[in-house]
């Protein structure tokens, strides 16, 4: 069992999304960077961290691509059924963790973020266990922020001080995150990331400054940038 600060962590990767903005013939997590898909890069990066025991991947029912991947045969990668929304997929993973008593802590990471740095994960773990309700990776907003109006014109400038871009992974206690997501979904609360479910309960997760390299592949041009970061970091 992998160990860091006495912890063995399970990572949950919701990967049931379609990714329509990529305008590709398949979901973005199955597009290739080099000789591997985005999802394979992401899962293998997580498993390369010494504290991450297993990765649970939430996949849509009838997904024809996942069974073709090499990670589908790994004993430390577990497939669960993904849901309609991100929160449903994460809850599916959480239920597996709880049922099999795998870990008191979980780390949720976007399938389309293959460039996360192991050093950032180190800091996330340290801050999460020191904080009462966990932590998220994030980067401070650098650009001038504008609020638009209905005519898609500038309404006003938003003060960027204290604004952060939320990234993943986000790390929380298994039981607490399960309760937060289940409660929020039952009340039809819009959940955009795991931290927002904790916020709805009145909690304030810690912000851990992460690398701007940790991009989320969303647009076609993001693939080339991710390939650059992955290739550079291998060197």
Oligomer: single chain
CATH H-level superfamily title: Spore Coat Polysaccharide Biosynthesis Protein SpsA, Chain A
Q: Can you give the helix content as a percent range?
A: 25-40%
Report strand %. Answer: 15-25%
Show unreliable segments. none
Strand order of the largest sheet: 5-4-1-6-10-7-11
- The Rg value, from CA coordinates, equals 18 Å
Task: Write down how many β-strands occur, each being a DSSP E stretch of 2 or more residues.
Answer: 11
Q: According to CATH, what is the topology?
A: Spore Coat Polysaccharide Biosynthesis Protein SpsA, Chain A
What is the straight-line distance between the termini?
A: 29 Å
Note the overall shape.
Answer: globular
**How many domains would you count in the coordinates?**
1
H/E series, N to C? EEEHEEHEHEEEEHHEH
- CATH architecture descriptor name: Alpha-Beta Complex
The residue-averaged pLDDT reads: 91
Class from helix and strand fractions? alpha/beta
User: CATH top level?
Assistant: Alpha Beta
Give a verbal description of the structure.
This protein is α/β, with parallel strands linked by helices and 235 residues long. It has one domain: Spore Coat Polysaccharide Biosynthesis Protein SpsA, Chain A (Alpha-Beta Complex). The chain contains six helices and eleven strands. It has helices at 38-47, 86-99, 118-130, 174-186, 194-200, 221-234; strands at residues 9-14, 32-33, 36-37, 52-59, 77-81, 105-108, 135-140, 145-148, 154-158, 164-173, 206-209. It has a seven-stranded mixed beta sheet with strand order 5-4-1-6-10-7-11, with helices on both faces. It has a two-stranded antiparallel sheet with strand order 2-3. Helix 2 (86-99) crosses helix 4 (174-186). It is globular, with a radius of gyration of 18 Å.
